[in-house]
Amino acid sequence: MSITLEGRARLLGDDVNTDYIIASVRKRETIDPQVLKQYMLETVDPAFAASVQPGDIIVAGRNFGCGSAMEIAVTVPYVAGIRAVIARTFARTYYRNAINNGLIPIECDTGDISEGDRLMMLQILRAGGLVPFFREHRGFRQEIA
Fold first, then answer.
1. What is the CATH number of the domain that holds 75?
2. Strand (E) or helix (H) holding 86
């Protein structure tokens, strides 16, 4: 099995609560992630769900996925085509739920990543991590061969 970890950065801030990822009121209507994906992050950015492209990568600050431990907050982004979340830190239950459901959680400094940057996760891993990658490429904004 081959996984491509390349995509467009979708920037969020600190303390993105699971109820921000998918609102509690929406979970009362259904728990079908195929239906709920159209409401993903609607309280943060009402246009977010409609703008998601397959392969997009959520980039966040500290404490991503805090709040309830409902797995639907992991499965909704995954069903929408997001395969990875990069954050400075994760809420532990969200991190475990992500691993359990196939959404890749990566914990690292996200300060130099901007909305829309093309992220190439395998190149970061091959470089030995984010710090060596930045030393070599000076950030994400330049073309990477």
1. 3.20.19.10
2. strand 84-87
125 is written with which tokens? 């891993």
Q: Is 118 helix (H, G, I), strand (E, B) or coil?
A: strand
Q: How many structural domains is the chain composed of?
A: 1
Report the DSSP beta bridge partners of residue 105. Answer: 85
Range of the domain at 102: 9-117
Beta strands 118-120; 6-11: pairing state: antiparallel
- For residue 119, what are the CA distances in angstroms to 55, 80, 92, 110, 123? 10, 18, 24, 11, 9
Could you report the per-residue pLDDT of 53-108, keeping only the tens digit for each?
999 999 999 999 999 998 999 999 999 999 999 999 999 999 999 999 999 999 98
